[in-house]
Design brief:
Layout (H helix, E strand, L loop, with lengths): L5 E5 L5 H13 L2 E4 L8 H13 L18 E9 L2 E2 L1 H10 L6 E7 L6 H10 L3 E8 H5 L3 H16 L1
Parallel strand pairs: 1-2, 1-3, 3-5, 5-6
Antiparallel strand pairs: 3-4
This protein binds flavin mononucleotide (FMN).
């Protein structure tokens, strides 16, 4: 049993990042913080402004969060990829919390985009090196093969926290 306090903090517009976050938190038996964006992002117009806002690296207004991120040994931050970037709500959450993070790990879900760009962007934003990263595409999430990847991500985190 890992004697560490872990928080999974994520934003999800359509449910994929939520699904992955729930599984991670169940496997780690840790706390979860869903980040809520107050900006209307539904429908085609919502899709358009979200892509534009993400590309412009625009912060947004998020609902007040419940967990104190400074109380955790590590915060696992999950975001969907929007127009090749971090979602606006996660960008805002990091802006508010980055000085409180002790250790961070990152994961994203995407429609198909893969690569280290997002991880580099989040590291820069947090001003901290990540202890573990995971990226999952929609296709990987739709067949349950992704559970193996989640297991590896968790094993990696546990090893770094030992
Ligand atoms: C505004 C917007 C922009 C997106 N841009 C990309 C992208 O650049 N590359 C990509 O692979 N997927 C892109 N997607 C797809 C999402 O990253 C993908 O569906 C993700 O799993 C959604 O996570 P969620 O269900 O937690 O919201 C975009 C989705 C939205 C809503």
């Amino acid at each position: 049993m890992l004697n560490k306090k872990i928080l999974v903090a994520y934003y999800s517009r359509n449910g994929s990042t939520r699904k992955v976050s729930k599984i991670i938190s169940e496997m780690l038996q840790c706390d979860v913080e869903e980040i809520y964006d107050t900006k209307k992002r539904e429908g085609m117009w919502g899709f358009f402004i979200s892509g534009r806002d993400a590309m412009l690296k625009k912060p947004t207004i998020i609902k007040e969060t419940e967990k104190d991120s400074s109380q955790y040994d590590v915060v696992l931050i999950g975001t969907p990829i929007w127009a090749g970037n971090i979602s606006c709500a996660v960008r805002t959450y990091i802006n508010y919390n980055k000085d409180k993070f002790k250790k961070v790990a990152f994961f994203y879900t995407s429609g198909g985009t893969q690569g280290d760009k997002i991880f580099n962007d989040i590291e820069r934003l947090c001003n901290k090196k990540s202890i573990a990263n995971m990226g999952l595409t929609k296709k990987q999430i739709s067949d349950d093969m992704y559970l193996q990847t989640v297991n590896e991500f968790i094993a990696n985190i546990k090893q770094k926290l030992e």
